[in-house]
Design brief:
By secondary structure, the protein is of the alpha+beta class. The chain is built from five helices and eight strands, in the order βαββαββαββαβα.
């Protein structure tokens, strides 16, 4: 079964540990700019959102690549890059709807999440469990459950406010 990263931004504290372990895992340096996962921060709202490749079924990056350097790994289901074929045109960066495809100007190559070969370190090290590695079909079930819980809580609060004290 295909597995993906599930992001629960409401749990994210903005510690950026996921960025650090990712860059160390892939490049041997502790440098968030080299991370395959990025924390988007809205400091004034206290909101932090981990952004990573969604491993799209019909991946725009894969479809636009003129030399077919982007492919799907049969074992993990991850969308991968063959650097022997990649010409660095950055078409994939331009079409990614999530901004998850990156370009490293030093190495002069594109890069993105590869799910760490099926053992994503960001999910392992996220202490608040804002990032999980789950079966792809679990995401919709989880989101439905979370939405139902929020609706229940909101209705319960509304009824409490309406009750005469």
């Amino acid at each position: 079964m295909k597995k993906v990263l599930m992001i629960d931004y409401e749990k994210c504290t903005g510690c950026r540990l996921c960025e650090l372990v990712c860059s160390v895992m892939h490049d041997g340096v502790s440098n968030p700019a080299r991370s395959r996962i990025k924390i988007m921060k809205w400091e004034s709202e206290g909101l932090y959102v981990p952004v990573s490749c969604q491993q799209c079924d019909d991946a725009p990056c894969m479809n636009v690549c003129p030399v077919k350097a982007i492919f799907r790994d049969e074992d993990t289901g991850a969308v991968m890059i063959d650097y022997n074929l990649c010409i660095g045109c950055r078409s994939c960066v331009a079409v990614c709807p999530f901004g998850a495809m990156n370009y490293n100007v030093i190495d002069r190559k594109v890069f993105k999440c590869d799910l760490c070969g099926g053992d994503p370190q960001c999910a392992k090290f996220c202490e608040v469990h804002a990032i999980s590695y789950v079966d792809a079909d679990r995401i919709s079930t989880y989101k439905k459950k979370t939405a139902a819980e929020r609706l229940y809580t909101a209705q319960k609060e509304a009824l409490t406010l309406q009750s005469p004290a």
